[in-house]
Predict the structure.
Amino acid sequence: MKKILEVKNITKIYKVYKSNLDRLKEIFFNKSYHKEYISNDNISFDLYEGETLGIIGVNGAGKSTILKQIVGVITPTSGDILKHGRVTALLELGTGFNSELTGLENIFLNGTLIGMSNKECEDKKDAIIAFSELGDYIYEPIKSYSSGMTMRLAFSIAIYSEPQILIVDEALSVGDAHFQAKCTKALRERKDRNMSIIYVSHDLNSLKLLCDRIILLNKGTLVSQGNPQD
């Protein structure tokens, strides 16, 4: 099978300071005034074309940190990430949206930010609006949306951007049951068309439905991987 993503020995260490003054003291006095927090510790895995990979673990296990490094929001302390295709991610809800703009205007803004051309946005806007089921709310500012409505729009844009790799981090948890089922169906259809998906969720049933393989993180370390049922 063709590798679409390679995560090699990724470690992410944060410096934790008691105050901003300690940051300055460290600069001027060339002495350590911080503690280290290891969010990811030497994590390695591959993602294959057409595969859905689940990532599970308790809060604080390092799931979101590894995703942000794959997307490029933050850089690893050490290790390498090799991407062999366009990545689109649904991370923190509302990321890439301007709350003052309408939903329609945000289709073009967010679409451009995740790599779509203006023509792609124009060609797909009707399909995005239809999938989101927002109706006339698409002409209202995002700041008037509920979290569920924001998720509907974000997911619709992401799925129609046709990335090679789609990352979904707990985004579906704020949606209603109907739209969650619709998203799950859409993800399975895209998987059949060789889209690779990284799916993070605490919903074990959706993980079993969607994923071919799951990795378990604990305290920043990859402790196990295998089939979803196990």
Remarks:
- The beta strands are 3-17, 34-48, 52-56, 78-83, 87-90, 165-169, 196-200, 213-218, 221-226.
- Residues 65 and 188 are 25 Å apart (CA to CA).
- The mean pLDDT is 91.
